Amino acid sequence: xxxxxxxxxxxxxxxxxxxxxxxxxxxxxxxxxxxxxxxxxxxxxxxxxxxxxxxxxxxxxxxxxxxxxxxxxxxxxxxxxxxxxxxxxxxxxxxxxxxxxxxxxxxxxxxxxxxxxxxxxxxxxxxxxxxxxxxxxxxxxxxxxxxxxxxxxxxxxxxxxxxxxxxxxxxxxxxxxxxxxxxxxxxx
Length: 188
What we know:
- By secondary structure, this protein is α/β, with parallel strands linked by helices.
- It has helices at residues 3-18, 23-35, 45-60, 92-104, 118-122, 152-173, 177-181; strands spanning 39-43, 65-67, 81-85, 107-112, 125-128.
- α3 links the parallel β1 and β2.
- The longest helix is centred in the C-terminal third of the chain and has 22 residues, at 152-173.
């Protein structure tokens, strides 16, 4: 296959993956963001990068959003929301964060392949996303579930979920891109 053929196969995988996202869970995530005092996002590796993208768009919407681990991130408190992206739902640093957030009185949402994982069970809302964990590249039938390496399909589905939630929030708040652009970084 050439590069364009790979790109076409990736988009086919994404189309199949996206049709498996629960509308109810995605809409509930949007509602929880609107009801939160502050929104904190976390994830390890590439899932963390997708979370950073969510935090940026929330900021563009005027919603107080922070990336866990940044030096300017305040403490989480009651009424806040922690949004975690974790394919496995078992990343120990994220499990520790979720437990701490719950102890403090914050709500936790985890977007994961495994809603029955430790993070899924700790969450107020586990959002099940299709994808393949790093160590399982074939579907149950033995056919290839994805041509992509490691957790790429999950991470791509995660950013699409996050962007879809942003569009829902834009609609609910009556905002458009031009209003959001007014909050875009201007020291670049």
